[in-house]
Please model this.
Amino acid sequence: MTIEIPVKTIEDTYASKSNIENILNQVAAKEVMADQTPSHYMLKAIMSGFLLAIMAVLQLAAKTQFAPTGNPGLINLIGAIAFSIALVMIVLTNSELLTSNFMFFTVAYYYKTITLSKIMKVFTLCFLGNIIGGFILFGMMTGTKVMTPEMVAALTKTVNAKTIDASWHAILIKGIFANFFINIGIYIAIQCKEALAKVFFIGVGVVIFVFMAYEHVVYNAGLFAGMMFYNIDALSWIDVLKNIVFAYIGNYIGGGIFIGLVYAYVNGKRDDVVKLTK
Model:
């Protein structure tokens, strides 16, 4: 029996090249939509913010209703699992979320398929839509009794921990971790064929970031929107701004640099885009 020595080329080391092709195709579609039908793009971004906010409410309900168990770890895990449903719905409905776009558009920029000005336009539209979605959800909630006093107290405690009690560098680092786990889950999910596998890997990344209380700029913006409707006097505006700025930067580093740029770099050269997208 003889075994031939495998002969490989550098292209054979691009283990997840299909992911890059998928991402570049999605970015091209996002760019066209933002340019030609910005109202469609905004609606998809609003839907993401709405979904995140409504699942944040579910998370608050789960945490407050399970509070009598007296097990903080279990309560946080239940809340994290409840919230993970949001990102699964966002990804599977192809809605637009700023923090996943950090990875997508960094890959596209590496391969020179989109300009920086177009990226900034999409990021601005997406973040604005995500914020509007959170405001719509909590505005609608004020017409119900869903938000109990216990949930409002839990919301206030969470927001204070993210703003008043947090330093800028802690927010930055936790922002990196949050979007690292979210986007590694999405990156793995892209290469999964089965819907259940996609759901699992997307959900796992979210559960980790929520359970560990990392910083996600869109999720935080939704919480701040909730505070504006339910306990605006407790908000420290300078600390809210601090959180948004450094969570935004941290999320970009975690998703855009640590995932997007790294996997773009190890899966091809910048001038390979024509070959990759044939």
